[in-house]
Amino acid sequence: MVKFGLQFKATLENVTNVRPLGDDFRWFLKLKCGNCGEIPDKWQYITLVESVPLKGGRGSASMVQKCKLCSRENSIDILGDTIKAYNADDSESFKTMVQFECRGLEPVDFQPQAGFAAEGAESGTPFPEINLQEKDWTDYDEKVRESVGIYEVTHQFIKC
User: Fold this and answer.
1) What is the pLDDT of residues 89-114, one digit of tens each?
2) DSSP 9-74
């Protein structure tokens, strides 16, 4: 089993504590079979609340799937205690937001979508429903009368 870290990078404007909200947050990934190299075209998502038993009583994982090309059974598990917020101090640099434990799979792409939250850097104003699918998000913080935003969202995977 191999651990991969999803590193998040964005430019933050007057916000901090950007994070996935709740155990039902959907991590949309493209996964490569470590056996044959197959990468399905469609996005797949995993959540902390979903748990599937592994064959042979080896525990459980967030997702177990059989490769359509080589029929190998692979799994990926979200390591819940590794989920970290992306803060104003992290702006414009890569920071590991979550780690995945993989057996036979390798994450190769991530698509941020709905379910992120943040708060005003100065005001603490909560912004609970942020969708990053367009790689940018903007709003207005009434408390401090400033625009807020998350821009140029990108990512990379690293082996941990």
Assistant:
1) 999 999 999 999 999 999 999 999 99
2) EEEEESEEEEEE-STT--EEEEEEETTT----SS-EEE-SS--EEPGGG--EESEEEE-TTT--EE
